């Protein structure tokens, strides 16, 4: 029996599921705790608990966590970090962290260096790397006592050596430092990629600590299974990888719920609506994965170009407060106090849940308590909810072909049987879709480079990109026999000679279990 | 003697947004430029705007802007003074002191570049430009259309290279040679045209467009914070017509000779139900057809805005499912003459169509 444990640490609840191959054996929900880890221990106990012997059968534990997101958003546990950008004389008009909120810049220490190096769009050097300059910078970093270093270089995504060669030189002076190369994290767009690298470098100390804490929690259960974390594109990283790239776990929550929805419903092409207490997250599944955002995504006030799902978040959930003059629902919500404050639970606040119960669409709490609501108000409210969900689903649709809408999350009762004219599916276990998404997550690899198609035929370029993506997936821990290409995007670039085309390929495979 | 009024950091956000609206889908994203200008203000530089009616006949004005590829600009952004160095190069070459700067293109990122060069130079930027919108090539600006010489022109990169085009056969050669040099410089460079007299600008430039971009940006930002409809605010201020409201149904694109060519199809919503609008796009939005009939065409401005936020959507970001409003605004008179239409009319962009002018006046007709 191949058992897997999936855990999702969310803002309100920590959910755990135990899965045997593709089947859900047990699930458990417990409030998220301040230290996060003790809630995880409780959840582990919930699904493995009395079963005693189950622990030894667990082949892997997959965790989706908000630790690193919270560290950035709350500006705590960030280690002082040096950022070295290679690109002089270009780019000096905007130094690193120029568009960061002041408090976050201070929290990560605000140590930045510019040096010669970096590439033109076609791979020519802007200026050659100057080893003496880099050694001087390394000595200054050492003098400041910094142990975390982020390195960015102009156009490094087309040639990682632009950063890696510089790191080798820094290492001569600073052999113990932890290095983050921007090309290992982000894609084209220097400021955004560099931002991600700096955040990553400043999270690495915390990364080591968190991974250690989870390992301890597992050991306490006698679990020797390997530990994985889900990253923001819904795929897994090994614990060792998380220690090096903790920033990639940021915003894995919505992705896990979408992947869980895909698994629970058996659908690969669908819209997912995850309705919580305060918000609804709406995204599109394509080949069973969330479609990724094409524009900059902000994390804690910083622009990044992470591989984030393209999620539309609207302020409508089960606890959304209904106001009558002028009429509207949300974005204010009673949140986790729904079971005290909603009318159907004996409270005094008219919520979206009350409207749904009054309209006879769901049986939650006591319907008697909402009988007094005027019929036209209920009708108006239900129409409003339907209209807003429909408009959001339409925005997220990828094509005019009719595809189903999968509804998950605790606030699912808000959805009718059709949204935007599309059939609604409510899979079993929809309440723990996130933890399921973590448990079934796969491993991915990606490449994103600019090719001059005048030098290399398009087919050859695509072939090379597919190879690189597959290799990246295997390096990240995928079983080579199961790796497949799930996304190919080639975008011709205007104004550039040589038919310059940006090719991005993503490969995914099952995690290689021992 | 300081001339004109001073731009604040807050103005820059509004200006960048307004410039993107006037970019009609192109012109490059002004985000990097806005950050750079903001940095300069923080460092104590000043940016002054010279009202068009304070332009003197004897003023000597240089048009500057970035030339290259927008996708390169987000990776290898500027050292900072490229446009300033290009401006000083034409000044040295022509031997006469420059008294002000101006934009060639108010739509998109080149609304901001002259402000940055002006901050370095301590000179004001004239409240006007050479397009009243965005166009992809330099010969499409009114200065060159109405015969002002583009050369001597200069390009400067971040490495200290400066190329002077001391003389060109015509403005098409200027575009071709400058573009080639810019690619060799790494596809980002500062570009300055020959100094122009105030008296010549008075007959060729499109006036008050910097103020217009600023006003549009402020209106949209205010509308968002007050929960008003930003699209109707833009339409109200500019006198633009609401050509269509709908949901994008399909976007197709390919690159032909270095320019992204495509078409977007929009199905009608609200008052436009059961109707379909197609917009031919290259770098900018160029021809709009409603149910097969041309209702607006270049050089008139076809602006595609997010229906709710009023955010302008550039051609590379258009995609299925967006709900959009399409506004049409009559182009400045300088772009509508027979002479201008040879350079910026539908046929100049490869469409075998006569120009179908939008009626109904609008901001440019009144200013």
Properties at a glance:
heterodimer; A: Rossmann fold; Nucleotidyltransferase, domain 5; seven-stranded mixed β-sheet; six-stranded mixed β-sheet; B: 367 residues; CV3147-like fold; 12 helices; 18 strands; 26% strand
Describe the structure.
The complex is a heterodimer of chains A (514) and B (367). Chain A is of the alpha/beta class. Chain A folds into three domains: 76-208, Rossmann fold (3-Layer(aba) Sandwich); 263-432, Nucleotidyltransferase, domain 5 (2-Layer Sandwich); 442-509. Chain A has 14 helices and 24 strands. Chain A has helices at 37-48, 54-57, 67-73, 102-107, 131-143, 161-173, 190-220, 239-244, 252-265, 338-341, 352-358, 375-396, 433-439, 458-475; strands at residues 3-9, 13-20, 23-31, 58-64, 81-88, 111-116, 148-153, 178-181, 227-230, 236-238, 270-275, 280-286, 289-290, 297-299, 302-304, 312-314, 320-324, 327-333, 405-408, 418-419, 422-425, 443-452, 484-492, 500-509. In chain A, the strands form six sheets. In chain A, strands 11, 12, 13, 16, 19, 20 and 21 form a seven-stranded mixed beta sheet that branches. A six-stranded mixed beta sheet of chain A has the order 3-2-1-4-9-10. The longest helix of chain A is centred in the middle third of the chain and has 31 residues, at 190-220. The mean pLDDT of chain A is 88. Chain B is of the alpha+beta class and 367 residues long. Chain B has two domains: 5-207, CV3147-like fold (3-Layer(aba) Sandwich); 229-366, no CATH class. Chain B is 31% helix and 26% strand. Chain B contains twelve helices and 18 strands. In chain B, the strands form four sheets. A seven-stranded antiparallel beta sheet of chain B has the order 16-15-14-13-12-18-17. In chain B, strands 3, 4, 7, 8, 9 and 10 form a six-stranded mixed beta sheet that branches. The longest helix of chain B has 17 residues, at 209-225. Chain B is globular, with a radius of gyration of 19 Å. The model of chain B has no long low-confidence stretch (mean pLDDT 93). Chains A and B meet through helix 12 of A and helix 2, helix 3 and strand 12 of B.
């Amino acid at each position: 029996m191949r058992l897997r444990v999936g855990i999702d640490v969310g803002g309100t609840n920590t959910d755990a599921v135990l899965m045997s191959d593709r089947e859900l054996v047990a699930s458990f929900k417990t409030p998220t705790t301040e230290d996060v880890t003790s809630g995880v221990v409780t959840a582990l106990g919930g699904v493995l608990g009395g079963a005693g012997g189950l622990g030894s059968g667990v082949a892997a534990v997959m965790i989706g966590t908000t630790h690193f997101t919270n560290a950035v958003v709350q500006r705590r546990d960030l280690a002082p970090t040096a950022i070295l950008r290679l690109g002089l004389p270009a780019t000096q008009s905007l130094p690193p962290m120029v568009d960061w909120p002041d408090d976050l810049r201070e929290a990560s220490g605000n140590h930045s260096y510019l040096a010669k190096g970096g590439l033109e769009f076609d791979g020519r050097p802007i200026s050659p790397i100057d080893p003496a300059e880099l050694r001087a910078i390394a000595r200054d970093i050492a003098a400041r006592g910094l142990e975390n270093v982020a390195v960015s270089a102009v156009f490094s995504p087309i040639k990682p050596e632009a950063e890696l060669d510089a790191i080798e030189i820094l290492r001569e002076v600073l052999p113990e430092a932890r290095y983050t190369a921007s090309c290992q994290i982000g894609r084209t767009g220097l400021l955004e990629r560099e931002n991600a690298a700096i955040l990553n470098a400043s999270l690495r100390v915390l990364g080591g600590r968190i991974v250690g804490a989870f390992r301890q929690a597992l050991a306490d259960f006698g679990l020797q299974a390997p530990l994985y974390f889900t990253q923001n594109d819904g795929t897994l990283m090994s614990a060792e990888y998380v220690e090096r790239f903790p920033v990639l776990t940021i915003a894995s929550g919505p992705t896990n719920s979408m992947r869980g929805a895909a698994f629970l419903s058996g659908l690969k092409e669908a819209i997912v609506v995850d309705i919580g207490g305060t918000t609804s997250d709406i995204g599109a599944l394509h080949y069973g994965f969330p479609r990724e955002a094409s524009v900059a995504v902000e994390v804690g006030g910083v622009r990044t170009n992470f591989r984030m799902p393209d999620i539309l978040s609207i302020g409508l959930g089960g606890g959304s407060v209904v106001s009558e003059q002028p009429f509207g629902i949300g974005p204010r919500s009673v949140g986790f106090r729904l079971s005290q404050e909603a009318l159907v639970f004996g409270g005094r606040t008219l919520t979206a849940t009350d409207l749904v119960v009054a309209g006879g669409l769901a049986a939650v709490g006591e319907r008697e308590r909402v009988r007094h609501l005027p019929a036209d108000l209920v009708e108006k409210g239900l129409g409003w909810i339907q209209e807003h969900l429909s408009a959001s689903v339409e925005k997220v649709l990828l094509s005019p072909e009719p595809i189903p809408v999968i509804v998950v999350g605790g606030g699912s009762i808000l959805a009718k049987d059709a949204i935007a004219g599309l059939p609604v599916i409510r899979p079993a276990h929809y309440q723990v879709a996130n933890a399921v998404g973590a448990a079934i997550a796969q491993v991915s690899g990606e490449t994103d480079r600019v090719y001059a198609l005048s030098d290399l035929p398009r087919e050859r370029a695509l072939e090379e990109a597919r190879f690189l993506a597959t290799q990246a997936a295997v390096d990240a821990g995928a079983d080579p026999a199961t790796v497949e290409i799930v996304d190919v995007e080639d975008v011709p670039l205007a104004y550039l000679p040589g038919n310059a085309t940006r090719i991005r390929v993503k490969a995914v495979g099952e995690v290689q279990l021992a | 003697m300081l001339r004109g009024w001073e731009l604040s950091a807050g103005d820059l956000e509004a200006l960048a947004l307004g410039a993107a609206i006037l970019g009609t889908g192109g012109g490059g994203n002004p985000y990097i430029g806005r950050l750079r200008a903001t940095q300069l203000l923080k460092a104590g530089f000043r940016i002054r705007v010279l009202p068009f009616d304070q332009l003197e006949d004897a003023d000597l004005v240089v048009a500057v802007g970035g030339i290259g590829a927008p996708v390169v600009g987000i990776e290898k952004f500027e050292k900072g003074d490229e446009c300033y160095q290009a401006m000083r190069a034409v000044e040295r070459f022509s031997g006469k002191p420059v008294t002000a700067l101006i934009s060639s293109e108010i739509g998109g990122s080149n609304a901001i570049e002259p402000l940055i060069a002006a901050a370095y130079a301590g000179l004001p930027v004239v409240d006007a430009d050479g397009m009243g919108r965005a166009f992809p090539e330099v010969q499409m600006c009114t200065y060159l259309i109405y015969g002002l010489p583009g050369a001597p022109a200069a390009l400067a990169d971040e490495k200290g290279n400066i190329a002077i085009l001391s003389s060109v056969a015509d403005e098409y050669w200027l575009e071709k040679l400058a573009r080639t040099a810019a690619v060799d410089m790494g596809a980002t460079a500062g570009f300055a045209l020959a100094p122009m007299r105030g008296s010549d600008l008075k007959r060729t430039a499109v006036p008050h467009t910097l103020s217009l971009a600023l006003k549009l940006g402020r209106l949209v930002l205010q509308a968002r914070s007050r929960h008003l409809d930003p699209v109707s605010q833009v339409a109200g201020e500019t006198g633009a017509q609401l050509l269509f409201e709908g949901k994008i149904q399909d976007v197709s694109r390919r690159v032909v000779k270095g320019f992204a060519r495509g078409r977007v199809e929009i199905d009608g919503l609200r008052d436009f139900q059961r109707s379909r609008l197609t917009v031919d796009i290259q770098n900018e939005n160029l021809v709009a057809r409603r149910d097969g009939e041309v209702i607006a065409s270049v050089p008139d401005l076809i602006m595609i805005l997010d229906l709710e936020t009023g955010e302008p959507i550039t051609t590379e970001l258009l995609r299925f499912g967006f709900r959009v409003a399409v506004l049409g605004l009559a182009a400045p008179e300088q772009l509508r003459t027979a002479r201008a239409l040879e350079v910026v009319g539908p046929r100049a962009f490869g469409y075998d169509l006569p120009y179908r002018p939008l009626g109904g006046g609008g901001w440019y007709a009144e200013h």
